[in-house]
Amino acid sequence: MPVTGSCHCGAVAYTLDEEMPTGAMACNCSICQRRGYLLHFTTPEAVIIEAADDAMTDYSFGRGVIRHQFCRTCGCAPVGGGTGPDGKEVIVINLRCTDGIDLDALQIQHYDGAGA
């Protein structure tokens, strides 16, 4: 069953063609810690992003390998993207924006992005 989610105002939505994730990554880098992301990484083929061309903007910092994308209207960040450690394109889903997910049931993997 597809997994869906969106930003607060609905201008950016996604459909993930996977089962509901049971785990997430919590990174402690400066932006992830401030935004409280719970991240799920997947391939571009597994995600359909529905948004007008001008609905999102992005922010990159450091090595610039991750695009922290967010809605221009409400500021929520349901999806992002970038280059994975293997050099392939990756889509990042913020599970806090996922419909019907039990965040308390997720197995959380902590990543030391502040020290990376």
Automatic annotation (TrEMBL):
Residues 3-112 form the CENP-V/GFA domain. Gene3D superfamilies: 2.170.150.70. The keyword Membrane does not apply. InterPro entries: CENP-V-like (IPR052355), CENP-V/GFA (IPR006913), Mss4-like_sf (IPR011057). SUPFAM superfamilies: Mss4-like (SSF51316). Keywords: Metal-binding, Zinc. Belongs to the Gfa family. This is GFA family protein.
